[in-house]
Specification:
Layout lengths: L3 E3 L23 H17 L4 E3 L3 E4 L4 E3 L1 H9 L7 H14 L6 H4 L2 H6 L1 E7 L5 H4 L9 E8 L4 E3 L2 H5 L4 H12 L6 E6 L5 E6 L12 H9 L8 E4 L5 E6 L5 H18 L8 E5 L2 E6 L6 E2 L4 H10 L3
Antiparallel strand pairs: 1-14, 2-3, 3-4, 5-6, 6-7, 8-9, 9-11, 10-11, 10-12, 12-13
Helix pairs in contact: 1-3
Length: about 325
């Protein structure tokens, strides 16, 4: 059931993990971090603002400061690679400048307003991010579940320290899930092929479309008008604006798994906000990885769970 089925264009090559790592952002090499900080300094200078760039933050001559952690993480996780970093920096700096005359959201907005704009969000798991963002429950393998504020200009991921001032984590997560259920999906389509493969795809401008995997059983009932089957659901989260799923009912599970793996790999490689090229099996609220991609291209390597699923329906 394995085999090479496609090779997809990648972004500019990143530095290898064998090169010296940056002291502030260990997920970047020293050279990559220096390049990013240069972009930040240049972007402010081009807008007429002189700044001092420190390892983890920027300070203006007037004393206004903002951290570089979110920007560094966004650049690190963008599948297009360093060739797009200057564009990401420019967009980020423009948002920062527009907000420079006002206080930060956590200090400025009323508590109820903050709660109304709180959502769960996935980011790729990285050891360097665990201290700040590893507070959420383990749900989808390879991803961290964090809480984020959906603001007019930005989506701000909240660190563990930020949450301590906002409330108790369980109550905050419950409210974020309540908000998630109202997220707008702009498009729903069913992808079918002559090999009997089929799966549903949800896309939208919201940064929290992929987060709908956290309420997958409710999503399936909403868009298929049917309760999930006892054998569970295949699901992919290629990037933050997309979620795909296949309700497992019959022998179409095998071709659908292959089709979804190709679909996830392409979306992961070609879209901003990349999350995972893998296919997961959702069953009774838990996620297991059942197909993955490696650096040589797309290889479907089925776990034992995936082979058991396919075998169960092979004759029916």
């Amino acid at each position: 059931m394995g085999g090479l089925v496609g090779i997809f264009r990648r972004g500019e090559r990143r530095d290898g993990v064998d090169l010296p790592r940056d002291g502030e952002f260990a997920f970047l090499s020293e050279a990559e971090a220096a390049r990013l900080r240069t972009f930040v300094r240049e972007a402010f200078a081009e807008r007429g603002i002189e700044v001092t760039v420190e390892p983890g933050r920027v300070t203006t001559v007037s004393g206004w400061r903002f951290g570089l952690s979110n920007l560094a993480a966004v650049c690190h996780h963008d599948s297009r690679g360093p060739r797009c970093w200057r564009t990401l920096v420019d967009e980020h700096v423009d948002r920062v400048i527009r907000s420079m005359d006002g206080p930060q959201a956590l200090r400025a907005l009323p508590h109820e307003r903050l709660l109304a704009q709180l959502y769960p969000r996935f980011i790729p798991s990285d050891p360097a991010l665990l201290k700040a963002f590893g507070y959420g429950p383990r749900s989808v393998p390879g991803l961290l579940e964090v809480l984020a504020l959906d603001l007019p200009e930005t989506v701000d991921m909240l660190t563990a320290d930020s949450l301590s001032d906002l409330g108790e984590i369980t109550a905050l997560r419950d409210r974020a899930f309540q908000n998630l259920r109202a997220v707008r999906v702009d498009r729903h389509k069913v992808v079918k092929d002559k090999d009997s493969s089929h799966f549903d795809v949800l896309t939208g401008g919201s940064y929290f479309i992929a987060s709908l995997a956290l309420v997958l059983d409710e999503v399936v009932r909403r868009y298929t008008k049917d309760a999930p089957a006892p054998d569970g659901i295949l699901v992919t989260l290629p990037h933050r604006h997309q979620l795909a799923f296949h309700v497992i009912r019959d022998r179409s599970v095998a071709p659908s798994l292959h089709a979804m793996a190709r679909f996830a790999a392409m979306g992961f490689e070609q879209s901003p906000g990349a999350l995972s090229p893998s296919v997961f099996w959702w069953h009774e609220g838990s996620f297991a990885q059942v197909a993955t991609q490696d650096d040589a291209g797309l290889h479907i390597r089925l776990t034992q769970e995936a082979m058991d699923l396919a075998a169960r329906f092979a004759g029916g």
